[in-house]
C-alpha cells in the first residue's frame, strides 16, 4: 500500500501546545483552478454591439457619407494618430532601440527570488526557521501583463530615441511607484494637475518640438487634440485592450446608444473612455447600477434625468453620472427609448 508523506507542523495556541500531524503539502503540486473564459458567439456579439445597419431608423444621420467622411470622434482620433509625429504600435522607433530596451528591462525587472521559485518543482520558497518560517508559492500568472510591458518598453524606447529632447508624460505610466520613479530618473517630466487649467493639467509647460508620452490608461480626445495643436511628438503607450473599448463605444455612437462605463469617474482610463463617447454613464458600484436599472424600468421613486450635477470637476465639460443622490442619472436621454433598447438587449454596457 502506498504511504502518504507526513509533515510535522507545530501550531502555537493559547490553549494548548499540541503537535498536529497533517499530510504533506508536497505530496503533489498545488492545484490551481482557473475558470475558462468563453468567447461570445457572433450572434451574442452582434446583439451587444449593434451597428447602424441593425437599426435603420438611426442610420439617416450619416446617410450618403463614407465611413471616413463621418463627423465622429473615431475619425477625429484617427486623423491625429496617422500623422508622422504620432508614434504608436509595437516598434515605432528603430528596431535596435527596441531590442536594447527589451534586454535592459529583462535585467532590471528580473528577481532572484522569483527565479529560485521557478526552478523549484513546486514553485515554492521557504524562508526563516521554525515557527517563524514562511512559505511563498509562485502564482501561475505573475508579473506585468502584456499591455503594461508594452507601455514601459515604449516609454523607455522613447527616451533612447530622443535623448536630447524635453519629455513629458500626462500622468503616471502605470500604477507602480517603481516604474514611475524609473521614468523620473530618465528626466521625464510628469504633468502637474490643475483644475483651473485646460484639460485639468499644466499643458502650458509643453513647448513645440517636445515629446509627450501618453500613459497605459490612454488620454482623452481633448488632450490628444491639444497636443496635436502644439506641434509635439506624441508617444502613445495606451494599452491595446483600452483602445479596444474605444472601438466599442465608437459603434455605440453610430447607433445612438448610451455607453455604460463601470469605473471611477476621475480615473484616467474612465476619463479617456468617456471622452470617446457621445452619450454615456459612469457608474461606480452596485448601488449606482441599481439606480440605473430602476430608472430604465421606470420604477417609482427614481429621480428625473433632466437635472445637472453640481459636483462636476471644473475641467470636465461633458456631464457624467453624479455620485450624489441629487442627480444620479443625468446622461440617460429618454427613459422610454432606453427601456425599449434594454428589452431588446441593446443597452450598451462595458
- Pick out the low-confidence regions: 2-34, 304-350
How big is the Rg? 26 Å
- The run of helices and strands is EEHHEHHEEHEHEEHEHEHEHHE
- Number of continuous helical runs: 11
Neighbour order of strands in the largest sheet? 3-9-8-6-7
Helix content: 25-40%
Strand content: 5-15%
Largest sheet: 5 strands, parallel
Which class best fits the helix and strand makeup? alpha/beta
Task: Write up what this structure looks like.
This protein is of the alpha/beta class. Among the domains are: about 75-85 and about 145-240, Rossmann fold (3-Layer(aba) Sandwich); about 240-350, no CATH class. The chain has eleven helices and twelve strands. α2 runs parallel beside α7 (about 220-230). The radius of gyration is 26 Å and the shape is globular. It starts with 5 loop residues before the first strand and ends with a strand.
Amino acid at each position: 500500500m502506498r504511504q502518504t508523506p507526513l509533515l510535522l507542523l507545530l501550531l502555537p495556541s493559547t490553549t494548548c501546545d499540541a503537535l498536529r500531524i497533517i499530510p504533506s503539502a508536497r505530496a503533489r503540486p498545488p492545484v490551481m483552478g482557473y475558470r475558462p473564459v468563453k468567447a461570445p458567439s457572433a450572434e451574442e456579439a452582434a446583439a451587444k454591439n449593434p451597428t447602424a445597419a441593425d437599426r435603420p431608423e438611426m442610420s439617416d444621420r450619416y446617410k450618403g457619407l463614407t465611413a471616413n467622411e463621418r463627423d465622429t470622434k473615431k475619425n477625429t482620433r484617427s486623423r491625429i494618430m496617422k500623422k508622422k509625429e504620432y508614434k504608436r504600435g509595437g516598434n515605432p522607433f528603430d528596431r535596435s532601440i527596441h531590442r536594447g530596451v527589451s534586454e535592459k528591462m529583462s535585467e532590471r525587472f528580473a528577481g532572484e527570488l522569483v527565479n529560485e521559485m521557478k526552478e523549484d518543482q513546486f514553485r515554492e520558497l521557504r524562508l526563516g526557521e521554525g515557527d517563524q518560517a514562511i512559505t511563498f508559492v509562485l502564482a501561475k500568472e505573475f508579473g506585468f501583463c502584456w499591455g503594461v510591458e508594452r507601455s514601459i518598453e515604449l516609454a523607455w524606447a522613447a527616451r533612447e530615441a530622443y535623448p536630447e529632447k524635453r519629455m513629458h508624460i500626462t500622468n503616471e505610466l502605470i500604477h507602480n511607484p517603481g516604474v514611475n520613479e524609473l521614468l523620473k530618473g530618465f528626466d521625464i517630466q510628469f504633468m502637474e494637475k490643475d483644475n483651473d487649467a485646460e484639460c485639468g493639467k499644466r499643458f502650458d509647460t509643453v513647448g513645440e518640438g517636445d515629446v509627450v508620452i501618453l500613459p497605459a490608461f490612454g488620454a482623452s480626445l481633448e488632450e490628444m487634440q491639444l497636443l496635436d495643436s502644439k506641434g509635439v511628438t506624441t508617444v502613445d503607450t495606451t494599452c491595446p485592450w483600452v483602445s479596444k473599448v474605444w472601438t466599442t463605444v465608437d459603434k455605440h455612437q453610430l447607433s445612438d446608444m448610451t455607453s455604460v462605463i463601470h469605473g471611477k469617474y476621475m480615473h484616467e482610463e474612465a476619463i479617456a473612455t468617456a471622452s470617446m463617447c457621445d452619450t454615456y454613464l459612469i457608474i461606480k458600484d452596485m448601488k449606482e447600477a441599481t439606480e440605473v436599472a430602476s430608472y430604465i424600468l421606470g420604477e417609482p421613486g427614481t429621480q428625473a434625468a433632466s437635472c445637472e450635477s453640481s459636483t462636476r470637476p471644473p475641467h470636465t465639460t461633458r456631464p457624467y453620472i453624479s455620485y450624489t443622490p441629487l442627480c444620479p442619472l443625468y446622461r440617460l436621454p429618454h427613459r422610454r427609448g432606453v427601456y425599449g433598447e434594454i428589452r431588446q438587449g441593446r443597452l450598451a454596457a462595458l
